[in-house]
């Protein structure tokens, strides 16, 4: 039976040095049979456990000194010997653990990267560029700040709640769409092998039990709108405000357009001769070009705007890109706050009492068109809504632009304070 080595102290181990006679030298340190410190000719030190695995003698590395202390080396040696007693080859066991770690790291995918990969694969299924942008924008704005750096396999239902709860009541439609988009990304991640288990963003049997039903707290399309009786006063206040965002909101109101259509409008889309604004299909919800007849008020607004050489946009942001959606919303919020500061109720939707938002101006226009006697189809086409059945739309060749021109001029006059009796309806002429 080999003689047991004397147990060295940490100080003695520290003082050990290679003799310099050539090659590496092994000094057994005691405490655990076979545990030695290898003194390298280069001056370094590493821990070695010399033991028998099956019928073979093995020198098993346990780490370098001083990163692994004497006490730690003895503990590692005991654990290694216990594995051997259990019939496990410690070297093969270590290789297996390293392989599992590498495999786990390869499977590991951040939510941000999962979004990019999902969109690169599935973007062709999205209807148009506007829809693709909405997908990316919604996730970028609300989901990525919390989930972006997390591995998809680590995301839980509680993480999804942290994203959804702040906007579930105030922006219910957006939040509901966001939930579905997160669910789709995580579902793709599961099928792609990057996560396992139930989808934490699913609704049925999961978030449905934790969040109020969207149908109970919001009605689709009910964007808070300016009351008809207050539209001219609101518009007058808007025209007194300075800034690109205020002018963009003014143009949005005059054209009854969506925020994204206005914010990304370029000068090349304006035809001054025909007095029209042609919005390309990739920015339209229906995916088709949309012609907007421009009233004299809208044209005057455009003529008064400066053109920047470094930007094609009519309403550029300070750095030349398009304005953000929040820029227009901020104008309305500030106008509402001014009213409140002056002791007035603010610009609120008369039906639900909520502060009006830019998209609600389209509802104000629709109410005005109905109250003023304009044909339903004209108003719906002005809003770029689909009108009639698929067969009717297939046979409809006209977008009624000349008839709509009179309607949009009357709408501009209404916003500027003209009374109903002063408005000559295009429908009633001739």
Task: Write a structural description.
46% of the residues lie in helices and 9% in strands. By secondary structure, it is an alpha+beta fold. The strands form two sheets. The protein has a four-stranded antiparallel beta sheet, covered by helices on one side. A three-stranded antiparallel beta sheet has the order 5-6-7.
Provide the fold topology.
Blueprint: H1 10-15, E1 25-28, E2 35-39, E3 45-53, E4 56-65, H2 70-85, H3 90-107, H4 111-122, H5 129-147, H6 157-168, H7 172-191, H8 214-217, H9 231-239, H10 244-255, H11 259-263, E5 270-271, E6 276-279, E7 290-293, H12 296-303, H13 325-341, H14 360-371, H15 376-382, H16 390-395, H17 401-415
Antiparallel strand pairs: 1-2, 2-3, 3-4, 5-6, 6-7
Helix pairs in contact: 4-5, 4-7, 5-6, 5-7, 6-7, 10-12
Across the major sheet, the strand order is 1-2-3-4
Count the E strands. Answer: 7
Tell me the span between the first and last alpha carbons.
120 Å
Number of helices: 17
Number of domains: 3
How much of the residues is beta strand, in percent? 5-15%
Radius of gyration: 35 Å
Shape, per Cα inertia axes: elongated
Q: Which CATH architecture of the largest domain? A: Orthogonal Bundle
**Mean of all residue-level pLDDT scores:** 86
